[in-house]
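Database export, one record per block. Field names are fixed; values are copied verbatim from the stored entry.
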Amino acid sequence: MADNGTIEVFYRSSKGDVNRASDVESLKSALADKDGLFWVDLFTRTEREASILKEVFNFHPLTIEDCVSPRVDAAKIDDHGAYIFVIVQALTEYRPDAVLEPIEVDFYLGPNYVVSCHRERVPAIEQCHQRCQRDESLLSQPPDRLLHTLLDALVDEYLPIVDAVDDTLDSLEEKVLDRPDTALLQRILLVKRNALKLRRAAIPQRDIMNRLSRGEYPKLIREETAIYYRDVYDHLVSIEYLVEALRDLADGALNTYLSVVSNRLNEVMKVLTGATVIFLPGALIAGIYGTNFPEQHVWPPYNSEWGFIAVVIVIVLLIVAMLAYFRHRGWI
């Protein structure tokens, strides 16, 4: 049985009483209360913490394996007849210098219960805990509405993160034009990676909300509740459009960075090439004049008083002439 530190239970009986008992027997009694509602929230980091899923609910072993596994599975929904099993991905925080790390949250929806499982803290679910403690009206609704409340709270955490990524990208775009460097390139690539993670998390969940909203599970999702899931679906569609825009902006920032770096490289190469071309004739003359040929074959003669000065003057005149020509052509 899971320790009390790893489980939260909110139970409303068919008589309207609300309690938070978490021992096996009380949970089995709550499960037998068909007109009641109870929500069990579990940390499932170990097999022992997840034992309640087998002892009380007798869930399928494959679903329990998904709850305990340390990997983050893609969002999906499975119909097991008496209950449905839903996997979604929650986003808890965003740091501009770190990769987004989604947290897997698993849900079981039955005729009179909702079970949520996760391996890390999820602020959106903890806020629902606090709501249940302050206001028991959250537990007065049917299980399908309670599941909607939890899923909606998780999806609501996406938009602030999308906005934060957008702000990061705006800041990077300003820095690209100012002083592009390797560190800036790494941050742009990190934004692209985070945008991809957002897309991979949002799109499968959008499909899940679509299935929940179109009457595919009439035994557990009532027709009057389907519209609420449709609202969550619409939010995810909007988030998908925003994430696609983020990806396009990130691609634009990357292209801008590459263009700025390329232009700066071209400027450097232009200066170096100009300097090389300007000094090349002088180096050629000096090289030829400095060769060890017989004196009668060299002009001006090596031993003349004016020969060295004449060579220097010729080199300087060539440099000045080339500078004037480059200036005339607008190259410098």
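Remark 1: The chain has two domains: 4-261, 271-329.
Remark 2: The mean pLDDT is 84.
End of record.
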